[in-house]
Structure formats: structure tokens, C-alpha cells
Amino acid sequence: MKKLISASLMCADLTKISESVAQLEAAGTDYLHLDIMDGSFVPNITLGFDIVNAIKEITDIPLDVHMMVNEPGRFIDRMNLDKNDILCVHYESDIHIHRTLSQIKNKGVKAGLALNPQTPLECMEYLTDYMDMALIMTVSPGFAGQKLFAGAERKTAAARKMLDELGHADMPIEVDGNISPENGRKLSRCGADIFVLGTSSLFIKGKDMAESAAEFRANL
Ligand code: DX5
Ligand code: ZN
Fold first, then answer.
1. What is the CATH number of domain 4-219?
2. Is the Cα dihedral 74, 78, 83, 89 positive or negative?
3. Distance of alpha carbon 185 from alpha carbon 218, whole angstroms
4. CA triplet 52, 54, 58: central angle to 5 degrees?
């Protein structure tokens, strides 16, 4: 599977967001990763639906929306996404996650299912037919600048094996949190396909994003 990069927009300079998006376009970013938080599912609040819709208007890069929100099904219709975009929800955030994944797919948008570090992989097992992507959180969600969790490689490799065995060899695995070039390379070898790039690799003060993105790809 082709290895793809998804730039975490919460790590960009929010005072000039359209310039950052233009730079990410020039850098050949495959997705823009937008973190939506509610201050309850995770102890932080970052981007919201209006930003998602505004970004959608200014770029053709597909969006990769990561909802860290309780009962995300309440908000799915607030975003103007299309068939190239991914809307990712957390297993832990919703008792009826199967219904919510179906809701996303019925809207014609790709559905992603995210798991926090401690959540067993088996939680995905009966849901894979309703998913277009698996998101393995490699830090506890909520903040940039954290350290990779110790089980990240083992869990990514186990996720790849499980998806392959269930007949989903073509389903991408995304990894999110502390994806430095070194961690990206390790996780790529475990079967990760989409890499969320934040402060660990792409948004580095004084360094050109196109250069950082190219270095990251070359190092995979
Ligand atoms: C987590 C977010 C970002 C991302 C930032 O859901 O997508 O916080 O992890 O990247 P790092 O961890 O490199 O700062
Ligand atoms: Zn994220």
C-alpha cells in the first residue's frame, strides 16, 4: 500500500492558517488532519466544525477529521465532507459506534475507527466491514508533543495482522502521536500506512515544511 502523510493542522500557525494550508499543498501532503475535541472525551479543545468547513473551501487536499468527542454521531452532519475525506470516530466515545460508523458511510464519507492506546484491538474485530481506515493512537489523544506509547509497534503489527486475516489487506492503518521520522519508520515496518505529522516531524520552527515532508517520506 502507498504510504501517505496527513498534516496535523492543530500544530500549524493558526494566525495564518490559509498560508499554512498553501504550504502544505506545495509540500505534497496527502491529507490534512483536523483534531476536533470537546473538553470532555479529552481534556482539551482545539479545532471545530466551522474550521473544518472553512478549510474544505480553500483546499482540494482530502480532509482527515479526527473526532475526540463524546457521542460524535450528534455532529456528523455539521461538516461538509465528501467521498475523498475521512471522518474518524473513537470506539470509546460512543456506545453505539456501529450505528455511527454506518451513519458516516451513509453520508458518502470514508469512516475511520480510532482506538486509544489501552483499548484492545479486538474492539474493532466485528466492525471492520463498516470501516475504511483504522486509527491506532500512538499517544493518549488530546495534546501535541507527547511521547510514543510503549505498545505502539506491537499494536500496529497486530492490527495489520488482524485486518489481513479478516480480508481487509487493503484497509489502511493510520498512526497518530509522536510520529517522528524514526518512529514513522518503525511503525511503517509494522504495517502503518498513513502517518499523522505534527510537532515531531513537520511543524518545526525555522524549518521548511516541504523539506521536512520530503525527509520524512525518504526515511520511511
Ligand atoms: C493528536 C493530534 C496531534 C498530533 C501531533 O490527536 O493529531 O496532537 O499527535 O503530533 P505530535 O505528537 O508530533 O506533536
Ligand atoms: Zn489526531
1. 3.20.20.70
2. negative
3. 10
4. 115
Cell (9 digits) for 87: 471522518
Helix H, strand E, coil C: the string for 99-164 is: HHHHHHHHCCCEEEEEECCCCCHHHHCCCHHHCCEEEEECCCCCCCCCCCCCCHHHHHHHHHHHHH
Residues with CB under 6 A from ligand 1: 8, 10-11, 33, 35, 66, 139, 141, 143-146, 176-179, 196, 198-200
Q: What is the pLDDT of residue 48?
A: 96
Task: Give residue 158's Cα distance to chain centre.
Answer: 18
Q: Give me the pLDDT at residue 74, please.
A: 97
Rounded Cα gap, residues 143 and 176, in angstroms: 11
Tell how far CA 189 is from the center of its chain: 18
pTM here is 0.98
Rounded to the nearest angstrom, the distance between the alpha carbon of 129 and the centre of ligand 1 is 27
Nearby residues of 6 by Cβ (< 8 Å), 6 or more positions away: 29, 30, 31, 32, 33, 64, 174, 194, 195, 196, 197
Active site residues: 35, 176
Q: How confident is the model at residue 197 (pLDDT cuts 50, 70, 90)?
A: very high
